[in-house]
Amino acid sequence: MPRARALAFPLVLLTAAAALTGCGASEVVPEASATSAGEGATVYPLTLENCGREITVDQAPSRVVSLDQDSTEILLSLGLQDRMVGTASWTDPVLDSLAEANAAIPRLSDNAPSYEAVLGTDPDFVTASFGRHFAQGGVATRDRFAETGIASYLSPTDCDGDVSFNAGGKRTTPLTIDALYGEIRDLARVFDVSDRGEALISSLQQRAAAATEGIDFEGHSVAFWFADTKTPYVAGGFSNAALLASTTKMTNVFAGQTDDWPAVGWESMVSADPDVLVLGDLQRDRFPGDRLADKIAFLESDPLTSTMTAVKEKRYIALHGAELNPSIRFVDALDKIRAWWDENGSTL
Amino acid sequence: MGREREHALSAPVVSRARLGRGSAGLGILLALAGLVVLVISVGVAVTLGPADVSLVNVRDVLLNHLGLADIPVKAAKNAIVWEERLPRALVAACAGAGLALCGVVMQSLLRNPLAEPFVLGVSSGASTGAVVIGVLGIGGGVLGLSGGAFVGALVAFGLVLLLSRFTSGGTSGVILAGVASTQFFSALTSLVVFAVADSDETRGVMFWLLGSLEGMRWDKVVLCAVVVVVGGAVCLFAARALDAFTFGDDVAASLGIPVARTRVGLLIVTALMTAALVSVVGAVGFVGLVVPHAVRLLVGQRHMRVVPLAAVVGAVFMVWVDAATRTLFAPTPLPVGVGTAIVGVPVFVALLVRRRGRA
Amino acid sequence: MTLETREVRWTRGGTLVVDGVSLHPDPGTTVGLLGPNGSGKSSLLRLLQGAARPDSGEVLLDERPLTQWRRRDLARTVAVVTQHAETDADIMVRDVVRLGRTPHRPIWGGSTSGDEEAIAAALERVALTDKADRLWHTLSGGERQRAQIARALAQEPRELLLDEPTNHLDIRHQLDVLALVAALPVTSIIALHDLNLAATYCDSVLVLREGAVVAAGAPAEVLTPALIAEVYEVRARVIPDAETGRSTILFDGPLAS
After folding, report:
1. Orientation angle between helical segments B140-166 and B170-196, nearest 10 degrees
2. Residue B255 contacts C, CB cutoff 8 Å
3. Distances (CA, A) of B226 to A49, B280, B305
4. Which CATH number describes the domain made up of A46-209?
5. ipTM for the complex shown
6. Which residue of B199, B201, B331 is in closest CB contact with A286?
7. What CA–CA distance (Å, rounded) separates C131 from C139?
8. Which residue ranges does the record assign to the ABC transporter domain (chain C) (predicted)?
9. Which residue among A116, A210, A337, C83 is least packed, with the fewest CB closer than 10 Å?
10. Three-class SS of residue B113?
11. Is there a contact between B83 and A230 if contact means CB atoms under 8 Å apart?
12. Is B76–A228 a contact, with Cβ atoms under 8 angstroms apart?
C-alpha cells in the first residue's frame, strides 16, 4: 500500500516534532512577591463584608485588575498604581491628575474584558463598579474568581445586600454619598492604605462642600439626559444623578422612576418641561447623540424638543459619563453645576 | 346520497359567500368605510399617551394648524400633538398599510400562505445594515442608520435574486433563496452584536430589530406616504395579474400574463417598498402575515378588493397597536413589533383554526 | 384558421421530446392526442399553447407564428386546461371562472360588460350554475375539473387544449367532461390515456410514440390491433358495435416480450 507508506514518513516527522517541543524546561512560576510595605493599620487576614459576601484577603494584594473606570480612578487616587496590572471599561479619558499614574497600567479592553484576558494578567484581586461583570454573561461570577483564589470586590454603590442593581436588581432607596465613601474606606483597608483613604475622603468632602456652598436651585426642575436621541435614557429617582440633583436642591422630573437610567419617550420630557437639562457628553460616540454637540443640535432642531423652555433658553449643563456615575468625579460634576449656577443661576 | 352531501357542504359556506358576491363596488365601499375608521382611529390615538392631552386639546391644535382657528394652546401640548403623536400615528398607518400590501403580494405571488414581506431577506438585511453602521460605526457620517438599513435591505434582496437564478426558478426557488438570505444576514447581525456591542448598544439594536415608532416627524410621514401611495398604486394595477397567479404559473401564462416579468417586477417593487418602510420604522413583524389572511376571510380572493382593504386594515391595525404599546407601559416605550407579535399571534391562530374548520 | 404545428422538434433537458410533429386539426373538431407516458403529448401541448418554443418547425395560429402574437390576443384565442390545477386560496367557483376573463379585462383590472355574461354562460355550459357561490375546495374532483373548463370557456377561445382532463375522475365524470368538450363548437385538442374514450369522443386522433407521429386520422381507421401493439405493447381486439357504429377496444394482455 504505497499510499499508507507515503503518509507514514510525514506522520513520524510530526510526532517527533511534537515530542521535542514538549521537552523544554518547565515554565517558571514566580514566587508570591514580598508584600509592599503598608501602613501597618490593617490586620491580615482581613475579612470584609461586600455586597452580601464575605471576602477574605490574606495580605495586601499586589496584582489588581479593575474592571471599571470608576474603580480604577479610586485605586489610582489611593496611589496604588504599582499594584495594578490591568484596567477595563473606560467611558471617558482618565482624569488629568491621574494620567501619569495610569500610563503604565495595561488596558485590557475599552469595554468589558474576557475572563481569559483577566486571568492572563495573573491577578490576585479584582474590583468592579458595576455588577454586570460578575453576573452570568459578564466576565465571570465572583464564585468563579474565588475558585482560582482571586478575591473580588464590587462597589457598594451598586448593591443592596447581594443584589446588584446594575446586574438587574432594583433600588429601593436613593443612593447616598456614604456608599462611595464606604467603597474608598474598604479599598483602603484592603490595601493597608487607610490613611490615604481618609485623606481622599476628606478632600472630596471639602471640595463637595465648597462646590455646593450657596447653591440653591430652590426646587427648580431638572432632567438628566444620558444618551440616545430616539428613546432618551434619563436619570431615575434613586440614581447617582438624582443624588447630584438633591444635593443642589433641584427636582428631578423623573424622580418617580426607580431604574437608574430608564428609557422614556420624548413627550414625557416635553410635557414635564424641566427648567434645566443636564446632558451627558459621552466619549464613546457610538450612538446618535452621544456627543454633547450632537445632543444640543438635536434638541434645537427637532420640532418637538425645541419647544422645551430649557432648550429655548439654552439651559444646559454638560457632564461626562464618569461624572454621572457614582465615582470620585461627583465632585467634578458638582463643580460644573456650580460653575453654571454662578453664571446662570439668576436667570432661573 | 350525493345530493345530501352537497347540501351539508354548502351550509356553512353561504354566509361568507354572501359577502363575496356582488359587484366590485363592494370593494370600494369597504375601503371607504375603512378609511373613515382609520381617520377616527388616528384621532383617538393622538389623545393617548403618557402626557396629559385631552380631546379638546387635540381639536384645538388641529383647528389651529388647519388655519381654521387661532386658539391659544400650551406650547408643550401643541408640540406633543402636532410634532410627535400625529406624525407618529400617520407613520404607523402608512407602515401598516405598506407592510400589509407587501404581504398580499407575497402570498399571492409565491402562492404560500406563510409568505410575508420579510421572506425576501429584506428585514434581515436592513438589520445588518443598521447594525454595521450603529455598532461598528462604518460609514455613519454619510448614511445614518436609516440609510444603512436601506442599503442592507437592497443587498439582501439582490442576493435573493441572484440565488434564485441558481435554484429551480419559480416560486419555491424564490422562497428558498429568501430563506438563505434571511439566515445569512441574521447571522451577520448576531455576529456583530455579540462580538462588538455592549449592553447599551445591544438594547438599541434590539429596539430597531423589533420596530420602533419613536421619533417620527413630518419628514418621515411624507416619505412613508409617498412610498405607500406609489406602491399601492402598483399593487392595484397588478391585481389582475395576482388573480391570474391563483392556480400557478402555467395557468397564469395561458391567461395572457407575462409570468417571469411580472414576478420579478412585483418582487422588486415589494422589496423596495419593504426596504423603505423597514429603514424608517424597523422590522415590524406579523402585519404583513396576518392582515392579508384576515382581509381575504372578509371579502374573498379578488385582488381588486383585497388590495385596498388590506392597506386600510393594516393601517388601522398598526395605529391601534402602537397606541396600546405606548400607553400600557408608559413612560417606557415598548417596541411596536412586540405589540404586533402579541396581538398578531393569537389572531393568526384564530385564522388558522377557522381555515381548518372549513377545509 | 386554427392552431397547427408544422414539423416541430423540441429537445428538453437533453432529450428529444417532440420529433417532427405536424398537426393540422379541422376547425371545430375534437382531436385526441394518444400515446404512452413520455410519448410527448404534454410537450406538444406546451408548444401549442406557446409556453415553450420549438427548436425547429413552426407553431401557427391563423397562419401566423405564435411568436408574432401578442400574449393577450393569444390568451383570448387559445385556452388551456391542465391536469390538475391546485391552489391554497379559498376561492369561489364563480371567481375561478372569472379568471378566464383576465385577457379581456383592461390592465387595471376593472370588469367589462361582457364579463358577467361570459361567466354565466360558461357556468351554464358546465352545469355548475347552482354551485357558483361555493368554495372551489368543496367541490368534487369532477366538478373542479368542470370549473376549470368553465374558466377556459370564459376566455371565449376558439381553441381549447386539455392535458389529460379525465385523470383522477370517476367514470361518470369522465364521460361528462368529454361529452361536454366534444359538444363544444371550439377546436379541442385533448391528450388522453384511455383509448376507448378517445374512440368514443374524438373526431380524429394523433398517435405519438417517443415524440414522433405514428398515425393520424379517424379513430376507427387508426386504432387497429397492430397499431395498439406497436405503440402500447399490448394485445388488443377491436370490436365494432352494430348499434352505434362505434368500436370498442378489448385488451387481452401485455405483449409477450
Report:
1. 140
2. yes
3. 63, 13, 21
4. 3.40.50.1980
5. 0.88
6. B201
7. 9
8. 3-235
9. A116
10. coil
11. no
12. no
